[in-house]
Amino acid sequence: MSQISVKVVFDVKGGADAETICEKASEHGLTVEQVQRAIGVIFGQCDDSVVDQLEALDGVLRVSPEGTFQLPPLSPDKPQ
Asked: Which residue from 11, 32, 62, 75 could staple onto 44, CB 3.0 to 4.6 Å apart?
């Protein structure tokens, strides 16, 4: 399958522990890149086939693929 960037949202108000979720998510193949404990979000990359497994973890509310974009190459003929 293919690697995708994802945002894992977890339940801060429900007492979900970011470290525990990161460990379990890593066991399922998530490469954790950034953790925002205060707002309950983990950013990382994983194979698109494990998204359902990540969503099933205790304390995880949802897993959303992150969109990507690319700017066109700089060209003096086209204003940026």
From this structure: 32
